[in-house]
Write a structure and sequence with these properties.
Length: 361
């Protein structure tokens, strides 16, 4: 393919962005008239403008980041501010467990029996499989459930075998994963957010909800606001996409473990209308969602982070972290879908691939 043909394809990609509504037609004409500007530079500017527009127009506190893994180029909106991760933090637990497995310090084929006393709170589908004698499976299966189903009990057990919160914090520090925190674990953190201290009794039925409803309104509000302002499990959007990029490049785990984690994340069942909802045919995603507690009409933490892979094999790390919002769920999902679509538009413009047939919805 000649340079002229490539240039035409890239300009066609830019035209597709205009039709998709990513930039005004006047701005596109101005960009194309610059002649000397490389198409990639123009595409960078377009994506940067689109991400900023999406962040600016959203009614809530949001951090957005996109990192082109092949080049390291990154764009963001409020990308260095810390937002609640909630279940996104299960990703760091999995990395800690897999690093220990790579070192021969943890056997993911180890059999583990999950009992009623292991239950935690909120989302834990495994609870329905625990009988009188418990439920026996492997540590690897529990990690799979933690990532794909966001099962809190499964994650807590993996965390315990991986060495606890201090081991995850040490992994983050050892690998210099800037912009990422890890809290005290699901039970303690969720209790603190509600103005409570964890009690094993909270794992039974609706005991936690009943205890939370009994917390004085002012105390619960204070605990909730304190968490949102300085989340103990907080992370920046730029920090997360940097970590995802390092995973994709094979810098955090062995090749086999890297492939395993990405394969598991590609089977995530939660958040199908978040980032995933904006995918075009031929595109793939490996991702992890996070959803926090609600006080009144306000939710603290509504997230999706992951790696988008284009039909031509290019990889993009994406993070959308909504720290606080009262907007309806469809509006939040639309924001995330539009971030995915913006990345797809960028891929069209910068690579001139066949994905240019994708139409913005």
């Amino acid at each position: 393919m000649t340079g002229v043909t490539k240039g035409r394809l890239r300009l066609a990609g830019l035209a597709a962005l205009v039709l998709a509504g990513f930039i005004p037609a006047a701005q596109s004409a101005q960009s194309q008239s610059r002649g000397a500007a490389p198409a990639g530079t123009v595409a960078h500017s377009i994506l940067d403008s689109r991400i900023r527009a999406l962040g600016r127009s959203f009614d809530g506190e949001v951090g957005i980041a996109v990192r082109e893994i092949g080049t390291g180029w990154t764009t963001s909106w409020n990308g260095t501010r810390y937002y609640p991760q909630q279940s996104v933090s299960k990703f760091w637990v999995a990395l800690t467990a897999m690093q220990r497995a790579d070192l021969g310090e943890l056997d993911l084929d180890q059999r583990v029996t999950v009992r009623r006393e292991d239950l935690t709170l909120f989302h834990q589908p495994i609870a329905g499989q625990i009988g009188a004698s418990g439920f026996t499976t492997t540590l690897g299966d529990l990690m799979f459930r933690a990532l794909t189903q966001s099962d809190n009990t499964c994650n807590d057990i993996v965390l315990r075998h991986a060495g606890g919160p201090s081991a995850v914090q040490a992994m983050i520090a050892r690998n210099r994963l800037a912009g990422v925190r890890f809290g005290p674990g699901e039970r303690a953190m969720q209790s603190q957010i509600a103005g409570l201290q964890w009690s094993p009794a909270y794992s039974v039925g609706r005991a936690f909800y009943q205890a939370r409803s009994g917390v004085p309104a002012d105390r619960r509000r204070e605990a909730f606001e304190s968490y949102v302002a300085d989340p103990v499990d907080g992370a920046t959007a730029e920090g997360i996409v940097a970590g995802l990029a390092r995973l994709q490049r094979g810098e955090l785990l062995s090749p086999e473990s890297t492939e395993r984690v990405l394969a598991i994340m590609s089977q995530t069942r939660t958040g199908r209308q978040r980032l995933t909802g904006g995918l075009a045919p031929g595109w793939r995603i490996a991702h992890k969602t996070g959803t926090g507690q609600v006080l009144g009409s306000t939710q603290a933490g509504y997230n999706d982070v992951g790696i988008l892979t284009s039909p031509d094999g290019r990889h993009y790390a994406v993070a959308v972290l909504i720290g606080r919002t009262a907007t309806p769920l469809p509006t939040r999902m639309e924001l995330m879908q539009n971030v995915t679509r913006a990345v797809i538009g960028y891929n069209e413009a910068s690579a001139g691939t066949e994905s240019g047939r994708y139409q913005h919805r």
